[in-house]
């Protein structure tokens, strides 16, 4: 009985030890799971805190930038200066190529008495000048300027362009210009070395103006109906989506919707300010010659008016210009 009792006690002790070890293992697993959960919670909280800190830093940088407009303006000025330098370099490259082509052409035409002087681009003026002192005076000669398509050599007369000076207008961009001089029974032809180039930045400037309902340009009234205008006071030339208006203060000198009788072109009679001057025929019997503050303003006004007129199915051109001319 004693031996049996000892055996039962040992068995019970062994069972108790197994249960205790099992309970300890279970408790250990619970503690480990609790620690892991706590670590994950802390890691998630740290990640949230980090993200919140990043958002606060970004917001602080944005607020700091808003309170430093001078720095932003400085960066904008630097970008603008780089754009201007790039445009100048591009223009210089184009002019060098044209100068090389011109020199080559002059070498091939050594007997040519006259040549064209001036930049072959929109906003400039081209002058017919003699190459030699012995060349005849052309002040009394008949002169006629023409546009020539770069492809096909189609020749188009430019009405009114009969002087030794001609200022290209938007119609001339992408085309060659040619002048014919009649010296008695002989006819001399001189032409640009290449197509007329657009003015740098003019296209983007006009595109920005197209978003407006109306654009105003300060002008000086030079002639009215062909007669010189004595006053040199400032007038305002309004170019709108449906009409053009000329005013001085509250007084409206002319206002007209786009129509087939309206004409608009650069002044083709020569002169030092021809590149800044515009001819506007409001309707038959009423016309104005206007001088703008710059060549860019004049060309922008013409391009803007022609684009708006085109939207109204009207082609704005000069007197006797071909209706097929592009805008």
Tell me what you see in this structure.
The chain contains 4 helices and 15 strands. α3 crosses α4. Helices cover 40% and strands 27% of the residues. The strands form 3 sheets. Strands 8, 9, 10, 11, 12, 13, 14 and 15 form an 8-stranded antiparallel beta sheet that branches. Strands 4-3-6-7 form a 4-stranded antiparallel beta sheet, with no helix packed on it. It is α+β, with helices and mostly antiparallel strands and 327 residues long. Mean pLDDT is 84; it is low at 323-327.
| Element-level helix/strand string | HHEEEEEEEHEEEEEEEEH
Range of helix content: 40-55%
Distance between the termini: 125 Å
Shape: elongated
GO molecular function, one term: actin binding
Domain Stomatal closure-related actin-binding protein Ig: 114-211
Domain Stomatal closure-related actin-binding protein coiled-coil: 1-100
InterPro entries: SCAB, SCAB-Ig, SCAB-PH, SCAB_CC
Defining traits:
single chain, 327 residues, alpha+beta, four-stranded antiparallel beta sheet, 4 helices, disordered C terminus
Quick structural summary:
The protein has four helices and 15 strands.
What is the topological layout?
Elements lengths: L1 H65 L2 H40 L5 E4 L8 E5 L11 E8 L5 E3 L7 E2 L8 E9 L2 E6 L10 H9 L3 E11 L2 E2 L5 E7 L2 E6 L2 E7 L5 E4 L10 E7 L2 E7 L2 H17 L16
Antiparallel strand pairs: 1-2, 2-5, 3-4, 3-6, 6-7, 8-9, 8-10, 8-15, 10-11, 11-12, 13-14, 14-15
């Amino acid at each position: 009985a004693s031996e049996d009792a000892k055996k039962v006690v040992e068995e019970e002790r062994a069972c108790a030890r197994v249960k205790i070890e099992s309970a300890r293992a279970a408790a250990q697993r619970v503690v480990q799971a609790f620690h892991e959960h706590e670590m994950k919670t802390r890691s998630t909280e740290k990640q949230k805190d980090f993200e919140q800190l990043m958002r606060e830093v970004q917001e602080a940088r944005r607020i700091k930038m808003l309170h430093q407009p001078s720095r932003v303006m400085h960066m904008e000025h630097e970008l603008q200066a780089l754009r201007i330098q790039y445009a100048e370099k591009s223009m210089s490259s184009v002019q060098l190529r044209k100068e090389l082509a011109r020199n080559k052409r002059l070498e091939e035409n050594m007997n040519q008495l006259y040549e064209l002087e001036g930049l072959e681009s929109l906003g400039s003026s081209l002058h017919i000048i003699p190459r030699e002192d012995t060349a005849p005076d052309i002040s009394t000669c008949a002169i006629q300027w023409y546009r020539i398509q770069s492809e096909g050599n189609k020749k188009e007369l430019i009405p009114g362009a009969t002087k030794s000076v001609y200022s290209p207008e938007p119609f001339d961009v992408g085309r060659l210009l040619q002048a014919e001089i009649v010296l008695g029974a002989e006819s001399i032809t001189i032409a640009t070395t290449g197509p007329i180039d657009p003015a740098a930045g003019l296209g983007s400037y006009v595109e920005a103006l197209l978003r407006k309902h109306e654009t105003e340009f300060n002008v000086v009234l030079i002639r009215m109906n062909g007669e010189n205008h004595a006053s040199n006071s400032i007038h305002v030339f309004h170019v709108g989506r449906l009409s053009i208006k000329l005013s001085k203060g509250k007084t409206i000198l002319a206002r007209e919707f786009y129509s087939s009788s309206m004409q608009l072109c650069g002044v083709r009679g020569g002169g030092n300010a021809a590149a800044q001057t515009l001819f506007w025929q409001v309707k038959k019997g009423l016309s104005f010659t206007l001088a703008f503050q710059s060549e860019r303003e004049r060309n922008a006004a013409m391009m803007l008016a022609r684009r708006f007129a085109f939207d109204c199915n009207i082609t704005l051109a000069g007197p006797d210009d071909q209706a097929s001319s592009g805008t």
